[in-house]
Design goal:
The chain has 104 residues and is α+β, with helices and mostly antiparallel strands. It has a domain at 38-104: Ribosomal protein L7/L12, C-terminal domain/Adaptor protein ClpS (Ribosomal Protein L30, Chain: A), CATH 3.30.1390.10. The protein is built from three helices and three strands; from the N terminus they run βααβαβ. It has helices at 38-49, 53-66, 76-92, and strands at residues 25-31, 68-75, 98-103. Strands 2-1-3 form a three-stranded antiparallel β-sheet.
Length: 104
């Protein structure tokens, strides 16, 4: 059987112009407490947030002196994952270190 190509329609796909929106960003903050050691906070900043030792030390001192310190700005999923990692590390090491986020 020979196909009759006279019935075939040529549909053209038209892409609707859609505005793409950048994802919301969130500031991740470490909160000061009276029990977590400064050394542990620096280790967390290096391990979880990939900060250099000098930058981690600066952030740790902000946390110590001001009660909290901004660690970075991330999308929601990345921020929540990093917060969970901080809390897991703190629990494993018996520290009450808390980490939170706020819309940037």
């Amino acid at each position: 059987m020979v196909a009759d190509h006279t019935d075939i329609r040529s549909d053209v796909l038209v892409e609707d112009a859609q505005e793409t929106k950048e994802p919301d960003e969130y500031r991740v903050l470490l909160l000061n407490d009276d029990f977590t050691t400064m050394e542990f906070v620096v280790a967390v900043l290096v391990s979880v947030f990939h900060k250099s030792i000098p930058e981690a030390t600066r952030i740790m001192l902000d946390v110590h002196r001001k009660g909290k310190g901004i660690v970075g700005v991330y999308t929601y999923d990345i921020a929540t994952t990093k917060i969970q990692r901080v809390h897991a590390m703190a629990r494993e090491n018996s520290f009450p270190l808390r980490c939170t986020m706020e819309k940037a």
